[in-house]
Specification:
This protein is mainly beta. It folds into 2 domains: 7-83, no CATH class; 86-155, no CATH class. It is built from 2 helices and 9 strands; from the N terminus they run E-H-E-E-E-E-E-E-H-E-E. It has a 6-stranded antiparallel sheet with strand order 5-1-9-8-6-7. It has a 3-stranded antiparallel sheet with strand order 2-3-4, with helices on one face. Strand 8 (138-143) and strand 9 (149-155) form a beta hairpin. The protein starts with a strand and ends with a strand.
């Protein structure tokens, strides 16, 4: 099974980079990246130390319901090239030893029992296991330590 990793859409990143409010109606918070490994959810690379970045509350869902989790993410403050949707593992998913992988149905609701801390080297294997269930529409990759949204995984 082929999968693809999908980053935050460019229109959303550009809106934040232009000062549009986040999911809570707050303006993006401008910070300077130190050597902490901050990950841009649009280009899916590590923001270089000394570069400006934005901290925003992001909700990677269209609808507002109980399952539409919102959380903090970082985006390059300046325009960056979006990762888009590609089959290659993005650099940000090599920046941590493990991630939380969760499956969602076509109704954008979590499929209970699918969430698991997964070693970074096993993401593709876990994705194949989850996509074997026809009820799974897509996956979220989240920080295993802070639950922050990283990227989406889709069937190719």
């Amino acid at each position: 099974m082929q999968i693809r990793y999908t980053a935050m859409p460019t229109d959303i990143a550009r809106a934040y980079q232009s000062g549009a409010p986040d999911a809570y109606g707050n303006p993006p918070e401008r910070q300077t990246a130190d050597d902490g490994g901050y990950q841009c959810r649009h280009c899916l690379t590590i923001i270089p130390p000394g570069s400006d970045m934005l901290l925003v509350a992001h909700r990677p869902f269209d609808a507002l319901d109980a399952y539409a989790e919102t959380g903090p993410i970082f985006v390059c403050a300046d325009s960056c090239n979006g990762y888009g949707s590609q089959p290659e593992v993005p650099p940000t998913l090599r920046a941590s030893p493990d991630f939380l992988i969760k499956a969602y149905g076509r109704d954008d609701r979590i499929i209970y029992g699918t969430g698991a801390i997964t070693p970074a080297t096993q993401i593709e294997t876990r994705a194949a296991e989850l996509f074997a269930n026809p009820d799974v529409a897509y996956l979220h990759v989240r920080s295993s330590r802070n639950n922050c949204y990283q990227a989406r995984i889709d069937r190719d």
